Amino acid sequence: MRLGIRIFLVYALFIGLTGYFVLSTVMKEVRPGVRQSTEETLVDTANLLAEVLREDVKNGTLSQSHFPEVLKAYGLRQPGATIWGLPKNQVNNRVYVTDAKGIVLLDSSGEAMGQDYSRWNDVYLTLRGEYGARSTRLDPHNPDSSVMHVGAPIRDGGQIIGVVTVAKPNSSLQPYVDRTERRLLWYGAGLVVLGLLFAALLSGWLSHSLRRLTSYAQAVSEGRRAELPHYRGGELAQLSHAVEHMRTQLEGKAYVERYVHTLTHELKSPLAAIRGAAELLHEDMPSDQRQRFVGNIDNESARMQQLIERLLNLAMVEQRQALEESVSVPVAELIDDVLAAQSGRIERKRLKIEQSIAPDVSVTGERFLLRQAFANLVENALDFTPGEGLLRFSAEREGGRLRVSLFNSAEAIPDYALPRLSERFYSLPRPDSGRKSTGLGLNFVEEVVQLHGGELHIGNVEGGVLVSVLL
Fold first, then answer.
1. Mean local confidence (pLDDT), 34-38
2. Which end of the chain has fewer surrounding CB within 10 Å, N or C?
3. Around Cβ 451, how many Cβ atoms within 10 Å?
4. Is the predicted pLDDT of residue 270 greater than 90, yes or no?
């Protein structure tokens, strides 16, 4: 089954189940919600009538009062109202009043005059000082014939002398319940259809995008020219770039071309110097001049060897996908080891070393690579630090990571060079000799740091340059 169809089916199943459960839950709450609102209104009405009828019930003049005629006239009213699009042409509330014994004194329907209602919950509970309410079916076999009854106490001081009950048939509420349920069904069905339409569009777009990438990969594997699909951000754009990067790496053209051209350029100068010195050595010349040319050959040979070794180290790190070992490496001990290896240069330049890293500060990683990386950083700093200058090492925790900083007093790095310092074969002239290095040291450091999941930052600060390694 195609991926697009699978995505659509999963999405459709999710939309369908969600719509079903949400609609069924809401539909189940419509009827109780309407009845709860109606019950709250009946409570207010019953308590209002209880206050209106209190004096007549207290004095026993309820039957002689004008209230029976009022209720009769109330029952004949035709409101002619339109409530949310539904007509209301008759009143539905029934009102009856009982005395303290539960005997009906007044009934708007005229059906229960003189009857004993003391056992009905609306009267029984109210006479006991509790909330009295009940729902009773007029037809025991018809659930839609139920009527809500809410009673309110008629009080004389602190004594209950009667009960007024307001009743409303649930059938009068059913049109509003049906109307709400129909609307919910229509809205729910519309949302489900829109969700399915969106699912179809999403699955179609994703399938089309993946087919473009598949066609591109097939064309590349067959050696045909093909245009890389372009996407605006997101995982598809990342996948597209990853496929293109993989193609470039597999073909190796850009990689090999860059290395060969740059290496050829870097080797031209030492080879030319060696060849020129060798040709001159065939001629007769004073001993001191001969020694100078031999020294040139020796220096240029060492430079070529250093370039080749660093290229090999860099290639080794670039091919690594993960660390070969992961151990706790004390940072202070690592720095001291590197400084000890450069003690001769440090003494000749009479440099001041400040090392404030605590002995218990450590980082998890591959000791050999970290040692080489910090050795490159120190060597680079020594190249640019003037005599009697300062090298300062520090470390601080930043959350779950460690920032190791190296400050060296030196001239500020030119702005144009800052973003290119870790670029392969890029180098600045050394102040002492005016010559450039292999341009591989900082690139190697960055590769090692990234292999350890860290970051390398180089910038100018007051009085010198600050290199920060975040591991």
1. 83
2. N
3. 19
4. no
Q: Per-residue pLDDT averaged across 438-464, rounded? A: 84
Topology of the domain covering 322-470 = Heat Shock Protein 90 (3.30.565)
Residue in 171, 150, 163 with CA at minimum distance from that of residue 92: 171
pTM over 0.90: no
Q: Where are the domains of the chain?
A: 3-178, 252-319, 322-470
Least confident of 58-72, 240-254, 269-283: 240-254
pLDDT of residue 128: 92
- Residue 118 confidence (pLDDT): 92
Alpha carbon distance 461, 262 (integer Å):
32
May I ask the CATH architecture of the domain 3-178? 2-Layer Sandwich (3.30)
More confident residue, 233 or 134: 134
Which two structure tokens, joined as six digits, stand for 345?
A: 């240069």
Instruction: Give percent of the chain above pLDDT 70.
Output: 84
Rounded alpha-carbon distances, angstroms, from residue 316 to 313, 448, 452 = 5, 10, 15
Residue type at position 326: S
Q: Give the tokens for residue 268.
A: 């031209």
Q: Are strands 133-137 and 104-107 parallel, antiparallel or unpaired?
A: unpaired
CATH numeric code, 252-319: 1.10.287.130
Give all strands of the β-sheet with 146-156 in edge-to-edge order.
Answer: 104-107, 94-99, 159-169, 146-156, 133-137
Give the pair of three-digit tokens for residue 460: 């100018």
**425 or 464, which is more confident:** 464
Cβ atoms of residues 409 and 388 within 8 Å? no
